[in-house]
Amino acid sequence: MTEALARGWLLAWIAWSAIPVGSLVLLLIHLVTGGRWGETLAPALRPAAALVPLAALAFLGVAAGLPADYPWATGQGAAKADVLRLYLDPALFLLRAGVTLAGWSLLALLCLTGRCGKLAAGLGLAFYGLTISLVAVDWILSVEPGFNSSAFASEIALHQILAALAWAAILSPPGLGARGASDLAGLVLAALLGVLYMGLMSYIVAWYGDLPPKAAWYMKRGEGAWGAVLAAAFLAGGLIPFAMLLVSAVRRSPATLRVVGLLVLVGLALHLAWYVLPAYGAGAGLAAAFGLPCLALLAIASAVFLRMLRRREAGRAHHA
């Protein structure tokens, strides 16, 4: 039961944290490039990016469940001895996560307080690119060592950006209008195509490589109900939103974009579950069952945290 709870928390944390981190990345990109889209989406992206420190705090639950989440933490699993000694070490794992989450939290603070200029944003994006290439493997792929993909970090980065855009579509910031909705729809479509392309090409490369560890990883995720989970993720988060976004009336309507955003988030959550849960074998179903209340708890904590921030800002404005 404790193992299932720890694994459910891990999955919920990975899925939920994609929105704050993706929002931070989009804010940094806008600081570098500028553009109407960033100003339009700021009312949705800024509160979400403010949750990055909360994501860092919530990672303590992952750290507490490390032995249950990652077999290598107890010396089990298929990881080689030199990999365990030089990389998959609990202390090094927590150090990488701590540096990453602290850096992301600092970048969020700088963005939200207006202290992040174009140079700092560029350096922040470089820091994000470096750290996501490490922690994407740590947090997701290392649940089942043996499989590796040079494109995996890019896939997860696109997942996070798409999650943030889907969240913005659901919120439909005030003043979005038909023009802003069209801009947002174009961004969602581009990120969605990126996620689909990277996932498909990773599979094709692994298939052509004909390497046993990669084949075993994909075969496990095609057995039983996992094939249906992947199909549901593709339909709900990929094919249906893609088809909807091809319709000009949908792209210009904030109301229908909310439906697109919700479908995309459901699809992303299912896809992340497909990445993580099959590694736990027979315990995957119970972990998924615990993942839903954990996700609800994180959502409630987010609402409380944002309300506290709003009250604090209102109090500062009143005293000023």
TrEMBL record:
The keyword ATP-binding does not apply. The chain crosses the membrane at residues 12-32, 44-66, 93-112, 119-140, 152-172, 184-205, 225-247, 259-277, 283-306. Keywords: Membrane, Transmembrane, Transmembrane helix. The keyword Membrane applies. It comes from the Bacteria. This is Uncharacterized protein. It comes from Methylobacterium durans.
